[in-house]
Write a structure and sequence with these properties.
The complex is a heterotetramer, with two copies of chain A (about 375 residues) and two copies of chain B (about 325 residues).
Chain A: H1 3-10, E1 16-17, E2 23-24, H2 36-41, H3 45-70, H4 84-91, E3 100-101, H5 107-112, H6 117-122, H7 134-137, H8 148-162, E4 169-174, H9 181-192, E5 197-203, E6 206-207, E7 210-211, H10 212-215, H11 220-227, E8 230-235, H12 239-257, E9 260-265, H13 284-291, H14 295-305, H15 310-333, H16 339-342, H17 352-369
Chain B: E1 2-5, H1 6-20, E2 24-28, H2 44-48, E3 53-55, H3 60-72, E4 76-80, H4 91-98, H5 101-104, E5 114-119, H6 134-138, E6 144-147, H7 151-163, E7 168-173, E8 180-183, E9 195-198, E10 203-207, H8 211-224, E11 229-233, E12 236-238, H9 242-252, E13 255-262, H10 267-278, E14 288-292, H11 303-306, H12 310-326
Parallel strand pairs in B: 2-3, 2-4, 4-5, 5-7, 6-7, 10-11, 10-13, 13-14
Antiparallel strand pairs in B: 1-8, 6-12, 9-11
Helix pairs in contact in B: 1-7, 3-4, 8-12, 9-10
Classes of the chains: A alpha/beta (about 375), B alpha/beta (about 325).
The structure holds thiamine diphosphate (TPP) (2 copies) and magnesium ion (2 copies).
C-alpha cells in the first residue's frame, strides 16, 4: 500500500462512534448504506462479493457444527456466529504468507486460510488437541489458555526481524483475555522491540458471563496506544471497514512502522459455547440491538441494491448447502489416534519412561482384551 | 439427613461459611450471575450481594494476588479457578506469595485463603480441562491441599477449609459433581484426617477425590474373586495422614495407591516411599501405584484408557498379591 | 486538600520536560532555585526542613549499611542512594494510616514510617525474610519477587472500598518490574474497579544492567493513562515536587477520583546491589549528569540561600553521625531465629509432618552435638 | 584436558553450541553486557552480537512465551532465568505451552528450547534465591529435566540440551559455579544417563547437582568407618535412568537419595517408589531420603542446618544399615 493511499485512508478514521461514544471506523452502515468514508474510499465489488461469500460459508459451517454438537457428534462447540466480519475482513487483508496465532473461536479466519471443516472439528469431537499443521496454512493451532498465543506471536515476529523478512505476524484474542498478564506483556514486548506484530482483538462484549466493563476501564485500543502500539478502532461487524483497517495496519507494520493493535467491536450472537446459556446473564434487548448490526445482513443489502443479481445469492446458497452436507459427512468420518499412538507424540527423542509405559499399556490392553 | 449432589453440597457449605463470617468473600471468573461454569456458586450472589460474591477480571494471577491483599486485611477469600488447567498463571502468587507470607513474616502474618479447583478428567472435555495437578501444590510447603470425594466431605471440608488460618487448595472432582449422597449436620473428622472407608486384610487401596469411587468399585469386584481389599480416602493430600496409612498398611501388608495424576512424582510416590520406610518389615509387597500414564492429558476419545479404571486397579492388586507368592 | 487548592496545583503541571522531552512536574530546579511553579505554589519552610532531614538521615543510614556490607556484617545491601527524594517526598505526603506495599529498596520511606534501622537490616544480614510487623508501621514487608506486591495492594484497596474507608493504598515498584504481567494486571484491575490505589514507580533508569529503553516504548505514566489510571510525571529528585504531586494524587483518590500512577524520574547512584558493578554497563558521563541533579544538594542550596542558618546543618550532621553509630551497633546485635523456631512459622494450625520433622531435627541436632 | 570452573564450562559449552548452529539464541535478563548475574553468558554478546545474545524486558512469562514463538520458527532459544525463585511467573508458559505443544500437535511441532536455572542454596542468599524446584518440572510430561554437578558434565550437558529437539530444563548448582575441574573434549554419555561415580557394596548414595559433592564426601567419611558406600550422579531427573539405579540398588541392597529440595513429593520419593517396586526382594532396607526439611527455604543464617550435609547423609546411611541388623 502506497504512502499516499495510506494517508488518504488515514484521514477518514475514525469517522463514527460506538455505543460508548468511542470514535471508530466504519464504511458500511448497519442499514447497508455506505458511510461518507465508505463512499470516498470506494469499494471493489469483487472484493465485497468475495468477503460476503466467505462470511456466508463460515456462518453456515458454524451453524452446522453447532447442530452436530446438539446431536452429540461434537462434545463441544465454540460458535463464531456474529464475528464473521471481524475474522474474514482481517484475515483477507493479510498476505497468505503472514503467520497467524489464533485463539479458539477463529473458525471463519481458519476457513479463509484453507483449514478444512473436518480439521476444524477434530478437536471438538474429542479426537485431538488440534486439527491441522500450522505450516500448511500459516495458521497456528488454537490456544485455549487465554492470551498465551500473543507471546508466541511476539516471539515469532522477533524471528521475522532477525531474518529481515517483511511479514506481519497476526494474533487474535478476546476482550476477556486482554486482562491476562501475558497479553499485556506481549503488548509491551512488541512495542519495546518495535516488532511486526498485529494484535487483533475481537471485542464481542462478553467473556462468558463477564461484560467488558468488568474487564477494563478504558477501551482496549486506548490501552494499547499507551504501550506504544499503533491503535485502531473499527466496527467489527463491518467487513469492509475491518478489511480496510487491517490492510492499513499491516502495510504500516510492513514498512517498519512498528506493531499495531486493532480493536474490532463485534458481538457473540450465541452462547460462549454449546454448553453456555447466555440468558443467565444478558438481555434480549442487547441481543436485538446487535442483531440490527448483523455483519452479513448489511452486506447483502448493499450487494442487492448495487452490484449483484439474485443468481449470485442462489449460487451461494447452493454452495453453503453443499458445505453443510460435506461438513456433516466429514465430521462423522473423523478418526483419532489410539492411546498407543499418542505415546509417540510427547517427546522427539527416546524416553525410557514413555517406552516402558507404552509397553505396559500394550500388555495390559492385551490382557483385558482377554479375561482378567 | 438430607441428600445433596457433591456440587450443591459445596454450594451449601459455602453458604454456611458466608453466613457464619461476613469476612468470607467468594471471587473468581463468572462466579456471580452465572454461578460458575459448574454452578457451584449458583445463587450466592443473589443472597450475599456482588461485593461478597465477585466476578473478577479474567486474570488468575490477579485473582490470587488481590485475594492475598484482602486476606492481609482480615478477609477470608474463597477463590474459584475455573478449571484445573488454568491455575498456572497464578502459580507465582500461590507458591511464592500465598504459601510463604506466613513464614516470610516469621509467623506474624496469616493468609486464610481458599483456592477452589474443579479437577480431573472423565468428562470428555477439551485440552486443559481435565488435569490433576495436586502434586505441584503438595510439594509446596506452606499450603494445605485437600480433595473431597463425596457430598458429605464436600460440605464439611469446604467449611473447614474456610475456617483454617492456613491457605488451602481445595480440589473438587469434576466428574463426581453430580453424585448424590447424604450430608450429616456435623463433620465426623478434621480436615487433615484420612477416612478408612473399608477395612481389608489382603490389600488396601488408597485414593482421593475422583478415584475413591473407582477404588470402592474395585474393592467390590475383588471381593467377588475372594479377596478382602480395603479402601482409604486420603481427603488431605498435604499433610498426609501418615498415621492412618501406616496402620492400614501394617494390617494388610499390601497397598496400592490410585490417583488420576501421572504416577511419576505423583502423590503415590510419596506414600510409597513413606510407607515403605515406616512399614518395611510389615510389607508383603511394594506399595504399587496406579495413575495416569506419564503423558499430557490426551484427547477425550482415549481418556478412559488413560485414566486408572477398575481393571487397572484390579490388575495392580493382583500384582501386589503375586509378590508374596513368589516369596 | 480542597477542590480549589487542587485545581490551583493542577494548572501547574506539567511545567518542565525530562531528558526525553517528556513533560514533567518540578518545583525546585537542580541548582536549588524555585521554578515558576515552585514560586507560585509556594513552599512551607518547616516542611522543607523536615523533608531534607529525612533525606539526609536516610542517605547516611544507607551509606552505613553499605559499609557494613563491605565489612561482611551484611550479606547483601540494595542501596537507596539517589532515590531519597522520590521516597521521602511521597511517603510524607501520605497519611500515616495509608497502607504501603513497598518493593525492596524503599529504605528511606521505611525510616519515615518508623521502621528501625536494625529491622531494615535484619533481612540483609541473613537472619530473617523480613524485618518488621506491617501492622506497626502500615508498611508491608519487602517483596523481592518483582511486581507481586502491586496486586496485594490492589486487593487490600478492595477491602478499603468494602469498608467505605477513605484510605489510600500505595505501592512502590521499579521501571523494570513494570514489564511484569502482575504489575499490568494490577493497573488494569485497579482501574476497572476504580480502587483507591496509588501506584508509585521510581524510574531510576535501570533494572540491574537493563536500561528503561529496553523495557518499554512509551513512558510508564503514558502507559498507565492508557489503562485509565490518573497519570502523573514528576522530577523524582525534587522532593518538593514529589511531595506536592503525591499529595495531589492522594487527595484525588480519597475523594473517589479513582486510582493514580506517579512516575518519578530518579537515578540509582550506586550499583543494583552491593554485589553489582555498574561500570560494566553504564557510563561515567551518565553518572555525572545525574549527580548534577542530586536530590539532597538542591535542597541544601535552597535552604542555605533562604530559610535556615548553619546551626541547622550542624545539628543535622550530628544527628546523622549518631544514626550511623547506632545503626552499626544495632546491626551487630541482631539475632535471628533458630531452625527449631522456624518450624513454627510455616502453618497456623497443627501439621503432622512439621511436627515430625521438628522432632527429628531436634533429635539429630542432639546427636551430632555428640559423636556420630 | 583443560580445567574450567563449572560456570565457565557452561559458558564454553554455550559458545560451542552457538558456533555450531546460528539458530541458537541466548536470551534473558541481563545476559548481555553484564553477562548474567553469575557471568555465565559473559563475553557471548561481544562475540555473537546483541541479536543472538538478547537482554529481554523483565518478564519471565514473556521470556519463555516469546522463546516458544522463536522455537516454532526454527530457532533454538536458550533462556536464562536469573534465579530459581523467579521461574514461577513463567510456569504456565512452561507447563501448559512449552511442555505440551508437541503432544497437542500430535507430534507435528517441536519446541527445542533450553531453560537455564541457577538452582539451590548454600550461598547465603536472601529469600527466593536458594530454591530447588526440580520436582515441579519433573512431574510435567513433555519436559526433560537435567542437573549438572561438575564442569565436565556442565560443558557437555548444556550442548546436549541445546541439541535436543525436546524442551529441557537445565539446572546449574549455584554453590558449585566456582568449582574447578577438567573438561574432556568428548561427552562420555548421553543426556538422560546417570553416572556411577563410585561403586559401593554396603549402600549407594543417589544425588544430583549440588548434593553430589556432599554424597562423595559422605562416602569418603563412611569408608573411614569401614563401610563401602557408592555414589550415583543422576544427571537426568526426568527421565530417570532407572536401569542404572536398579542395578546399583540390587548390588548394594541399600540406597539413600540426597537432594536439596524438600523430601515431601521430591525426586527421592519417586526413586524410592520405583526402586522398591523393581528391587523389592533385593532391598535390605527401605530407600531412605535426605533432603531439606519441608519448610520454605529459611534465612541464610540457618541454611546449613536446613540443607542436607555430610552428617545427615551419614546418619541416613547408618539408619539404612541398621535395618538389616534388626532383621
Ligand atoms: C487462563 C485461562 N483462564 C480461564 C479460562 C476459561 N475461559 C475460557 S474462554 C473464557 C472467556 C474468554 O473471553 P474472551 O477472551 O472475551 O474471548 P471470547 O470467548 O469472548 O471469544 C474463559 C474465562 C481459560 N481458557 N484460560
Ligand atoms: C520476578 C523476578 N524476576 C527477576 C528478579 C531478579 N531481579 C531483582 S531486582 C531486578 C531488577 C529490578 O529493576 P527495577 O524494577 O527497575 O527496580 P530497581 O532495582 O531499579 O529498584 C531483577 C531482574 C526478581 N527479583 N523477580
Ligand atoms: Mg469476548
Ligand atoms: Mg529500576
Amino acid at each position: 500500500m502506497s504512502e499516499t493511499h495510506r494517508s488518504n485512508l488515514e484521514k477518514w478514521l475514525p469517522n463514527e462512534t460506538d455505543r460508548e461514544g468511542q470514535p471508530m471506523f466504519q464504511m458500511l452502515a448497519p442499514d447497508g448504506s455506505l458511510t461518507t468514508a465508505g463512499k470516498s474510499i470506494g469499494v471493489d465489488s469483487d472484493l465485497v462479493r468475495g468477503l460476503y461469500r466467505d462470511m456466508v460459508l463460515a456462518r453456515r459451517f458454524d451453524r452446522e457444527a453447532l447442530s452436530l454438537q446438539r446431536q452429540g457428534e461434537l462434545s463441544l462447540w465454540l460458535m463464531s456466529w456474529g464475528q464473521e466480519a471481524a475474522q474474514v475482513g482481517s484475515i483477507r487483508a493479510l498476505r497468505d504468507s503472514d503467520m497467524v496465532f489464533p485463539s479458539y473461536r477463529e473458525h471463519a479466519a481458519a476457513l479463509c486460510r484453507g483449514v478444512r471443516p473436518a480439521d476444524l472439528m477434530r478437536q471438538w469431537r474429542g479426537l485431538a488437541h488440534s486439527g491441522w499443521n500450522p505450516a500448511d496454512h500459516r495458521f497456528h493451532i488454537y490456544s485455549l489458555v487465554l492470551g498465551t498465543q500473543t507471546l508466541h506471536a511476539t516471539g515469532y515476529a522477533t524471528g521475522a526481524v532477525l531474518e529481515g523478512s517483511d511479514e506481519v505476524v497476526a494474533t487474535y484474542f478476546g476482550d476477556g483475555a486482554a486482562s491476562q498478564g501475558d497479553v499485556n506483556e506481549a503488548f509491551n514486548w512488541a512495542a519495546a522491540g518495535r516488532l511486526p506484530v498485529l494484535f487483533f482483538c475481537q471485542n464481542n462484549q462478553w467473556a462468558i458471563s463477564t461484560p467488558t466493563s468488568t474487564q477494563m476501564q478504558t477501551p482496549l485500543h486506548v490501552r494499547a496506544a499507551g504501550f506504544g502500539l499503533e491503535p485502531y478502532h473499527v466496527d467489527g461487524n463491518d467487513v469492509l471497514a475491518v478489511h480496510t483497517i487491517t490492510g492499513l495496519a499491516a502495510s504500516r507494520i510492513r514498512d517498519g512502522g512498528g506493531p499495531a493493535m486493532i480493536e474490532a467491536q463485534t458481538y457473540r450472537f450465541g452462547g460462549h459455547s454449546s454448553s453456555d446459556d447466555p440468558k443467565r446473564y444478558r438481555s434480549e434487548e442487547e441481543f436485538d440491538l446487535w442483531t440490527a448490526r448483523d455483519p452479513l445482513a448489511r452486506v447483502e443489502v448493499f450487494l442487492r441494491t448495487s452490484v449483484v443479481d439474485d443468481s449470485f445469492f442462489a449460487g451461494l446458497e447452493l454452495e453453503a448447502d453443499e458445505l453443510a452436507v460435506s461438513t456433516r459427512e466429514a465430521c462423522k468420518q473423523l478418526t483419532g489416534q489410539t492411546l498407543a499412538e499418542i505415546f509417540g507424540n510427547v517427546y522427539a527423542e527416546p524416553h525410557p519412561l514413555i517406552e516402558r509405559e507404552r509397553t505396559a499399556n500394550a500388555a495390559f490392553t492385551a490382557l483385558v482384551g482377554g479375561d482378567l | 439427613m438430607t441428600t445433596f449432589t457433591l456440587g450443591s453440597a459445596i454450594t451449601e457449605g459455602l453458604r454456611k461459611a458466608m453466613e457464619a463470617d461476613d469476612r468470607v468473600i467468594v471471587m473468581g471468573e463468572d462466579v456471580g450471575a452465572l454461578g460458575g461454569v459448574f454452578r457451584v456458586t449458583d445463587g450466592l450472589q443473589k443472597d450475599f450481594g456482588d461485593s461478597r460474591v465477585v466476578d473478577t477480571p479474567l486474570a488468575e494471577s490477579g485473582i490470587i494476588g488481590t485475594a492475598i491483599g484482602l486476606a492481609l486485611r482480615g478477609y477470608r477469600p474463597v477463590c474459584e479457578i475455573q478449571f484445573d488447567g488454568f491455575v498456572y498463571p497464578a502459580f507465582d502468587q500461590i507458591v511464592s506469595q500465598l504459601a510463604k507470607i506466613r513464614s516470610r513474616s516469621a509467623g506474624s502474618l496469616s493468609v486464610p485463603l481458599v483456592i477452589r479447583i474443579p479437577v480431573g478428567g472423565g468428562i470428555g472435555a477439551v485440552e486443559h480441562h481435565s488435569e490433576s495437578n495436586e502434586a505441584y501444590f503438595a510439594h509446596t510447603a506452606g499450603l494445605r491441599v485437600v480433595s473431597c470425594s463425596n457430598p458429605n466431605d464436600a460440605f464439611h471440608m469446604i467449611q473447614q477449609a474456610v475456617l483454617s488460618d492456613d491457605p488451602v487448595v481445595f480440589y473438587e472432582p469434576k466428574r463426581r459433581y453430580w453424585d448424590r449422597g447424604e450430608v450429616s449436620p456435623v463433620a465426623d473428622r478434621q480436615l487433615h484426617q484420612a477416612a478408612i472407608l473399608k477395612e481389608g486384610s489382603d490389600c488396601v487401596l488408597v485414593a482421593h477425590g475422583p478415584t475413591v469411587a473407582t477404588a470402592l468399585a474395585a474393592s467390590v469386584a475383588a471381593e467377588e474373586d475372594g479377596y478382602s481389599v480395603g479402601v482409604v480416602d486420603l481427603r488431605s493430600i498435604s499433610p498426609l495422614d501418615t498415621e492412618t496409612l501406616r496402620a492400614v498398611a501394617a494390617r494388610s501388608g499390601r497397598m496400592v495407591v490410585v490417583h488420576e495424576a501421572s504416577t511419576f512424582m505423583g502423590i503415590g510416590a510419596e506414600i510409597a516411599a513413606e510407607i515403605t520406610e515406616s512399614c518395611f518389615f510389615e510389607l508383603e509387597a511394594p506399595v504399587l501405584r496406579v495413575g495416569a500414564y506419564n503423558l499430557p492429558y490426551p484427547p477425550a476419545s482415549v481418556e478412559d484408557a488413560f485414566l486408572p479404571d477398575v481393571d487397572r486397579v484390579l490388575h495392580a492388586v493382583e500384582r501386589s498379591l503375586s509378590f508374596s507368592e513368589e516369596r
